[in-house]
Amino acid sequence: MNAPADIQHLLPQVDQRPIPEAFLAALQQRFGAQCSTALAVREQHGRDESVFSVPPPAAVVFAGSTQDVADAVALCAQHRVPVIPFGVGSSLEGHLLAVQGGISIDLGRMNRVLSINAEDLTVTVQPGVTRKAVNEAVKGEGLFFPIDPGADASIGGMTATRASGTNAVRYGTMRENVLALEVVTARGEVIRTGTRAKKSSAGYDLTRLMVGSEGTLGVITEISLKLYPLPEAISAAVCSFPSIAAAVHTVIQVIQLGVPIARCELIDAGTVRMVNAHSKLGLREEHMLLMEFHGSPASVKEQAETVQEIAADHGGNAFEWATTPEERTRLWTARHNAYFAAIQSKPGCRAVSTDTCVPISRLADCLLDSVAEADASGLPYFLVGHVGDGNFHFGYLIDPDNAEERRVAEDLNVKLVTRALALEGTCTGEHGVGLHKMGFLLDEAGAGAVDMMRTLKRALDPDNILNPGKIFS
Ligand SMILES: Cc1cc2nc3c(=O)[nH]c(=O)nc-3n(C[C@H](O)[C@H](O)[C@H](O)COP(=O)(O)OP(=O)(O)OC[C@H]3O[C@@H](n4cnc5c(N)ncnc54)[C@H](O)[C@@H]3O)c2cc1C
After folding, report:
1. 311: which of 90, 147, 216, 443 lies 20 to 30 Å off by Cα?
2. Residues 87, 96 contacting (CB under 8 angstroms)
3. Residue 191 and residue 220: Cα distance in Å, rounded?
4. Is the CB of 156 under 6 A from ligand 1?
């Protein structure tokens, strides 16, 4: 994009390091056909779902084992070449872009479920296993893994971004659900963090340090996760509201009353229209909450009755139930496809995604003014939210070649984040910092905390080879 001066500061700082010939030769000798320098392969690994565009990495290594990862990273360390771990590439904030050059390590072939420990409610997997594959593997044991970012992301990528999704309101995020890791360090050594025990006071919590580190502190090669028994009863319902405010006040009350709702998602009327067009659904084209209740039949009934009463007090229409597993899957698939439904509503567009999260009591203050700003801007957008967590996403739909649309979208994002921080919230509830939210991290955490992060990074990765130029400059 030929950007005018006023959005130059929004573009990534690209400073790709030269790749030594000797390094590429050694890489090809060690990995043979597992290493590709084909442009199409490099381009596929050098982009994500963000609006940024950066020249691709110099090569892609398809790792098949922890030893492959350790050898690739050791070679990178020897030649001071950057290395960017790659899961399935669904991240949204420029996490994967090779701003300082280097190579990509694709973990997709490390896709084995290593052990299911049904008695302990844990599973241990390689990083390239996707969330849906984990669920396929454990459902025969009557268990499930609840974390569900919209995309069928890899468990390694989800761990590295501290992902969550629609179930987090009840089951927590990757932070609460990762027990132990195997990690390849910046020197190419293999370490283990944590155990399968439910709790531990053994020294610094390196597992939690790695969860959310976005490939900047180590390459994750094995993950032990918590599992949950499949609920005895599950009910999903949609409820339409006369205004976004009515829906939001319903959610606030539901959470404040301690109803253990499993999913509680807001979709605004415009986005429902996009979802209907994309997924051929006949949902009422009004602002809606999409909810799910888990538990015993009696507890599900009780939860649903409580929420119905609260919704009715706020003008919500009678619940429409999705009773069969097929209907539920169709509804949640449509919710997960809202992003793609929106992208298809404006051909050629990209989405500038927001990810603010605020304490539940501040949700209305944060969301309603931001909706008014987005409406006034004239930009088309989608709005979905894991509102039970105080987390919501606008996706401002822009033509990536139109600098003015880009500027308007980024201005809206700045106003939204500023508001969320003033309300004691965060610039990113689940997508991570990547490139796009680096400035906001400084505003949120402050210079002292970001300096502490830099100190950790320097100690663990002194040559700055692990996904450099991300999270902070
Ligand atoms: C339609 C859509 C909906 C989404 N909805 C949600 C949502 O509801 N909640 C949510 O949290 N996210 C959501 N996301 C974002 C995305 O799916 C998550 O960030 C996901 O966790 C990324 O996983 P991935 O396998 O695609 O990782 P990638 O995009 O491949 O990588 C992401 C980051 O993790 C690092 N990484 C990957 N694998 C490893 C590894 N093994 N070791 C160390 N670092 C690694 C990469 O270097 C990069 O920095 C959505 C994305 C899309 C496109």
Report:
1. 147
2. no
3. 10
4. yes
Mutate to test the pocket of ligand 1, among 52, 84, 106, 161 (most ligand atoms within 8 A of CB): 161
> In ligand 1, which atom is closest to the CA atom of 154?
25
Taking only the tens of pLDDT, the chain with its 473 residues reads 344 445 556 678 899 999 999 999 999 999 999 999 999 999 999 998 888 889 999 999 999 999 999 999 999 999 999 999 999 999 999 999 999 999 999 999 999 999 999 999 999 999 999 999 999 999 999 999 999 998 999 999 999 999 999 999 999 999 999 999 999 999 999 999 999 999 999 999 999 999 999 999 999 999 999 999 999 999 999 999 999 999 999 999 999 999 999 999 999 999 999 999 998 888 999 999 999 999 999 999 999 999 999 999 999 998 898 878 898 988 898 888 899 999 999 999 999 999 999 999 999 999 999 999 999 999 999 999 999 999 999 999 999 889 999 999 999 999 999 999 999 999 999 999 999 999 999 999 999 999 999 999 999 999 999 999 999 98
What residues have CB less than 8 Å from 201, skipping those under 6 apart?
Answer: none
Helix (H) or strand (E) holding 106: strand 103-106
This prediction's pTM: 0.96
Assess whether the C-beta atom of 104 lies below 6 angstroms from ligand 1: no
**Closest CA relative to residue 363, chosen from 416, 297, 290:** 416
CB distance 278 to 337 below 8 Å: yes
Inter-residue contact 453 to 472 (CB < 8 Å): yes
